[in-house]
Predict the structure.
Amino acid sequence: MSERMYLFTRFERFWHWMQAALIIVLLVTGFAIHGSHGLIPFGKAVQIHEVAAWLLIGLWTFAIFWHFTTGAWKHYIPTAQNIDRMVRYYAYGIFVGAPHPYKVTLERKHNPLQRLAYLGVKLVINPIIWISGLLYLFWADLAGKVPAGLGLEQVATVHTLGAFLMLAFLIIHMYLATAGHTVFAHIKAMITGWEDAHDEGPANAGATRQQGSRS
Amino acid sequence: MGKRTSGWRKWLGAALIMAASSFTLAATDAAGGADGMPVAAAGGKAATTADHSKFKELQGPFKTGPEVTKACLACHNEAGHQVMKSVHWTWEAISPTTGKKLGKQHAANNFCGSILSNETRCTSCHAGYGWTDKNYDFTNQENVDCLACHDTTTTYKKVPTDAGHPLYAPREMPKGSGKIVQPPDLTRIAQAVGKPGRENCGACHFNGGGGDAVKHGDLDTSLIKPSRDLDVHMSPDGENMSCADCHTFNAHQPSGSRYAAIAKDTKGVDMKHVDHNRATCESCHDVTPHKDERLNNHANRVACQTCHIPEFARGGIATKTLWDWSTAGKRGPDGKPLFIKDDHGHLSYSAEKGDFKYGENVRPSYKWYNGVVHQIALTDKIDDSKVLELNRVEGSASDPNARIWPFKVMVGKQPYDPVNKTLVVNHVYGQDDTAFWGNFDYTKSIKAGMDYAELPYSGQFDFIETRMNWFITHMVAPKEKTVRCNECHTRAEDGRLVEITDIYLPGRDRSALLDRLGFGLAGLMLVGAIGHGSLRFLSRNKRKHDKEH
């Protein structure tokens, strides 16, 4: 079969790649500020970090609005169903050429592991970074308004924790991007928006292939 | 709205300062230029309303300093009384924060020591005449020295050893040099008086501690004509300001004192205040002078000087950084007092004073300072179990009034009484058989000093290591030469703020545990990905291979 799906709209792709670029810039400059490397001088790193942070906040605001108006937020509803099959696939099946247990459709773009991971980013990592980051950014103006015991040290530590979690996510995400039916299949889909259909999937994956109607 | 107001204030402040400083220069020029004499500072056209050279009271001839003073006071009939209330005359100051009586008469230092019993030498920097001993009459206004501050010809010089008097007759100086120095023309000087310029203040303040640049580190004769890089305010290529443009005087009372330097000026631009005290950066630059909000936030905890004066002693003249009195008194093989000069021509050893060290382009030490200085007085009981800090500055991160300030920390070792636990008065100067600089005998000189001062002395002396904090607040560099962010925000062991440990400093501080766990997690992910990827690659090849066979 050679059925193709327009899986990622122009906004989704823009959002994804902008987010990717900004997150990488923020990680590099953030770890420069943290003192982990000396590739960028502190002052310059702070400037870039702040600009990138505001851009990402702006992008995020748009993305949240977009998710709720288009209903795309439903793609992140977690499910425990079939999660064991996903795990088994990555732990074993993928090495013996077993078919991918999940059938992507326009209604369900993400497999159960993806849903969990992305939801974790959106509900855990991002809030950690944004809340601590905004506290960090406006720390001087918040003097006397934050609970006693909450110092810059705590804020910075939580922010760094968020950065490490994001870094770990980024590494795994980048690796799994190569785990499609070909190494570049997922990446290509994320660039063009079109996912090449392929016929390895089991018929009983529970998904009925559908065209068109976006939710 | 608030922004606009503060912008206006800044603009107005700057305009007024510039007007004031050009008036200073104009006045100086007019006064000095009247008879074609060289003047301290070249400036604009004359704008003064009085030409002192035409006053009949100033026709002279004047033979002594006090005679000139008498003529001055004939018209300026409040000036003498004003000066006599000033620290320049009393050498006494009450700390506004600790209430302690300080000033040169009482505060201990780790340079020359005490003025007591050494008056005729020390008081060459007194704004007066004739302070030869402890019984000096501080109420006689005719002994006020007007010319030290108001001479504009740069020819008025107080003799180092004449208790504040200038030369009145030709004299060989130094003794045995064959160089005959002529006395200054007091009449000409009196007719050319004007507002104080750098040379006037500098004659004493550039030479504190006994020589050029010795004491402060940020005050020396390089500031008479500094480059813009050395001092953006005083440079002719910069604002060309004089000392008194910032150290404003109210009725002859100077503003700005190291006994109680204002740690954090929250009032900002001075023009709206009545105290006419402009000796803080904020007096002109206001409390939020940067375009970058983050830098303005820094100013809440970091003194302006900390970033804007990257090093002191930048003018090519070395400042003394160590003075060890304990080694003084050595004689050479010839039996004469020993003097050793280093490669730069500085005395590294003096039989009179001991061992010295010097520094140029010195990075300051940084300390919290909240406006309170705990200055040791001569009579204080001291703790000799550790290094004695002569003027501890108070403050910490948790103190909202404290900011991080730059200091020159002078290292000293000086005599003290180990039984009574006090510092001692050392009689160094005088033509007698006890003065240290003639006899090199501490036993005699300290005894003589303490007897003279009428202070209790056990008869025993030892030497104690001391430290003294000198505010670094001059030699402000242009903005492109300020301290860079990463000189403090760094993990490097020589970061500027290594001694400030009670704050979380981004770029320097971190949770080492979190770093280990975080990079460990990222590393695991990476290893996992590489391992998983390799297995995929190998197993795919195997499948391919199997298929083909």
